[in-house]
Amino acid sequence: MQLWVGLGNPGPQYAMHRHNVGFMAVDAIAETYGFTPEKKQFQGWTREGRIGSEKVILLKPGTFMNESGRSVRAAMDFYKLTPEDVTLFHDELDLVPMKVKVKRGGGTAGHNGLRSTDKHLGPDFRRVRIGIGHPGHKDRVHGYVLGNYAKNELDPLADMLGAIAAEANWLAAGDDVRFMNDVAMRLQD
C-alpha cells in the first residue's frame, strides 16, 4: 500500500493558488483512476483506489500547509506505513512552471508543507516536485505562491495535471525515471 499526499490549503478561496497544485494533482489522479469519494479522516480527506496492482490512499491534509505533517503522520501510522511508502505532491519554486521532477529525500527549501512533513516523518519520503517558477525576488514569493494561476497558465496546468495522472502508473510501480520521462514527453506534444 502507498500513501500519496497532495499538499495545499483547504477551502475554496485557495483552490486555484499555485501552493495548491498538490491538491490538484491528487484530485486528477483520483478522477483518472476512479477512486472512492472523499472521506474525512486523518485531519484531512482521503480517497482509496488502485493504480495498476498497487493500492493507493490519496490524502489531502485539512490542517493548512504549515501543519501538513500531522495529517500525513496520522495516516501513515494508521496504515502501518513507513516514510518510504509516502509520496508528496507539492509546488516547487525552483522548477520552471509545469516541469515535474521526482526525488526521494532532501531538504525542504523553505517550503512549509515539506518542513512540517519532514518534522513528523523524517526526510526519506518521495517528492513529486511540480514547478511553479520563481517570481524573481524573494520579497514577492509569499504573494506569488498564494496567488491564483494566471488565465494564460490554465491550459498548460490542465495538460500537466492530465499528464501526471495518465503516467501515475509508473509512480505506483516505483519507476520514477519513466514517470518523469513520460510526463515530459506528453507535455512536448
UniProtKB/TrEMBL annotation:
Residue numbers annotated as active site: 19 (proton acceptor)
InterPro entries on file: Pept_tRNA_hydro, Pept_tRNA_hydro_CS, Pept_tRNA_hydro_sf
Residue ranges of the TM segments: none
GO terms (BP aspect): protein quality control for misfolded or incompletely synthesized proteins; rescue of stalled ribosome
Catalyzed chemical reaction(s): an N-acyl-L-alpha-aminoacyl-tRNA + H2O = an N-acyl-L-amino acid + a tRNA + H(+)
UniProt-listed CDD domains: PTH
Site keyed Discriminates between blocked and unblocked aminoacyl-tRNA: positions: 9
Main localization (coarse): cytoplasm
Localization per record: Cytoplasm
Annotated positions binding tRNA: 14, 64, 66, 112
SUPFAM superfamilies named among the record's database cross-references: Peptidyl-tRNA hydrolase-like
GO MF term list: peptidyl-tRNA hydrolase activity; tRNA binding
Listed GO CC annotations: cytoplasm
Keywords noted in UniProt: Cytoplasm, Hydrolase, RNA-binding, tRNA-binding
UniProt-listed Enzyme Commission number(s): 3.1.1.29
Site (Stabilizes the basic form of H active site to accept a proton): 91
Record's subunit section: Monomer.
Known function: Hydrolyzes ribosome-free peptidyl-tRNAs (with 1 or more amino acids incorporated), which drop off the ribosome during protein synthesis, or as a result of ribosome stalling. Catalyzes the release of premature peptidyl moieties from peptidyl-tRNA molecules trapped in stalled 50S ribosomal subunits, and thus maintains levels of free tRNAs and 50S ribosomes.
Family: Belongs to the PTH family.
Name used for this protein in its record: Peptidyl-tRNA hydrolase
Organism, scientific name: Sphingomonas kyeonggiensis
Lineage, top ranks: Bacteria, Pseudomonadati, Pseudomonadota, Alphaproteobacteria, Sphingomonadales
